[in-house]
Amino acid sequence: MNEKRTPKLLVTENKFCPGCGHGIINRILAEVLEEAGLDDMAIGSLAVGCACLMIDTFGVDWVQAPHGRAAALACGVKRVRPENFVFTYQGDGDALGIGFSETMYAALRNENITAIVVNNGIFGMTGGQMAPTTLPGQRTTTCPAGRDADLTGQPLNIINQMKHLPIGYLARGSVGSFREINKLKEYIRAAVRNQMDGCGYALVEVLSPCPTNWKMPLKAALQRLDTQVKSFFPTGEFIKEGEQIHG
Q1: Is 39 left (phi over 0), alpha (psi -120 to 50) or beta?
Q2: Which of 64, 149, 225, 245 could cross-link with 176 by S-S, CB 3.0 to 4.6 Å?
Q3: pLDDT digits (tens, 9 = 90+) for 100-156
Q4: Cα(110)–Cα(203) distance, rounded to whole angstroms?
Q5: DSSP notation for 125-159
Q6: Is the pLDDT of residue 203 over 60?
Q7: Is the separation of the CB atoms in 38 and 85 below 8 Å?
Q8: Mean pLDDT, to the nearest integer, of 193-216?
Q9: How many CA atoms lie within 13 A of 218 on its CB side?
Q10: Contact indicator for 173, 182 with CB cutoff of 8 Å
Q11: Among residues 199, 224, 186, 210, which one has the least CA distance to residue 35?
Q12: Of 115, 15, 108, nearest in space to 70 by CA
């Protein structure tokens, strides 16, 4: 009989809302780091948003940056501690909104860090405002009639922004189903290995539901994730070992 085991890096219960995908992503990351023997060598960089709730529940060394600046801080940490595994964990509003410049320039320099960016299409912690990734027509507290792409532009697709850059690894996964969760773990494992092999920048974007701010039950949120969200943000690996492989 297989015994279920909580990764030791998950030092206490998470603080995320019911149905949120962050808890699943946290567990995958913890499992991958422990499997790779990096649980005592990992340094995480957080900024502001729902992601920073893991600073008390995920047992690695943490540094916290001002809003959006996690990538810049991680680059500095990696340069002075090259033997450590250094990663960022951010939401889409943090990494792709106020922190878009820092995220992009870390990739342009091909910094040897790993970025995990959770895309739930909304600013979660601050109450459900429109994010860079909010879909056209999606209602938020700052676009209650639905996002008007003619007024605010199209959603930011970070994969399209990075897939022609000379970086080590680029992928987008989802927590929408058991099969996709298993695939996501493969992506995160590859992104971790990419850094330890010295292959440069790696980013994994993760599509995740936010039932609280989407204002729908989890089942409906997962259905939306699998249909509307994935149709706009297709999943898969896009760069592997420095070579463009998809799209």
Answers
A1: alpha
A2: 225
A3: 999 999 999 999 999 999 999 999 988 989 999 999 999 999 999 999 999 999 999
A4: 11
A5: TTTSEE-TTPPTT---SS-TT---HHHH-PPP-HH
A6: yes
A7: yes
A8: 98
A9: 8
A10: no
A11: 186
A12: 115
Q: Radius of gyration of the chain from Cα atoms?
A: 17
Domain residue limits, the chain: 22-244
Which CATH number is correct for 22-244, 3.40.50.1970, 3.30.70.1290, 3.40.50.970, 2.120.10.30?
3.40.50.970
Looking at residue 74, what DSSP letter applies? Answer: H
Model-level pTM? 0.96
Tell me the three state secondary structure of residue 165: coil
Integer CA distances (angstroms), 213 to 33, 52, 94, in order: 30, 18, 16
Pair 172, 163: CB distance under 8 Å: no
Residue 53 near residue 14, CB atoms below 8 Å: yes
- Conformation bin of residue 57: beta by default, left when phi > 0, alpha when psi is -120 to 50: alpha
Give 75's DSSP letter: H
- 39 band by pLDDT with thresholds 50, 70 and 90: very high
